From TrEMBL:
Keyword check for Signal: yes
Signal is among the record's keywords: yes
Signal peptide location: 1-21
Origin: domain of life: Bacteria
Organism of this sequence: Caenimonas terrae
Protein name as it appears in the record: Lipoprotein
PROSITE patterns (UniProt xref): PROKAR_LIPOPROTEIN
Sorted UniProt keywords: Signal
Amino acid sequence: MNNRSWVGFRVLAVASCVAMAGCAGLQTSGHKYSDSYKLNQPVKGEGCYDASVLLGKNVGASMEIATKVLAAIDSTVSEKTANQVKAQRNRHIGLLVGSGGEELSISLSPVQGNRTFVTVATKTGFVGGAGQKAWSCQIVDQMVAMSAR
C-alpha cells in the first residue's frame, strides 16, 4: 500500500468506528404523565436510558431528593431550575477505559394532590457505552426509596 491509500484506509476506519459507536441515550425523556401511573412505582424504558415515576411529594421536596440522588451517584449539577436539574457524572480513570461523563436530566411536573411526576433521561457520550452506563432506572429507584423515608 502506498502512503496515499494508507491514509485513506485510516480515515475510512476511523469514520466507520465513529459511525458504529455513536451516542446512546436520550437528551430528554419520552415518558408522559397519564392517570395509569401508580404512586412510587417506576416505569423504566429499554436499556434504562429513560425512566419515570410518580412521587408522593411536592416539587420542592422532589427536587431536594433528586439533588441528593445525583450527589450520591457522583454527579455535578450543571443547570438547575424550579422544575429541572441537569448534571454530569464525574469522570474516573479506569484500567482500560474511563467511566463517567454521562449527561443526566431530571424533570419534575406537579400533579394534583401534592404529587410530582418525575422523568429521568441518561445520555452517554460519543463512544456510547465504553465505561459509561444508563443511570435513569437507578435514579428513580433511589428517589422512590428516599421519598418513602
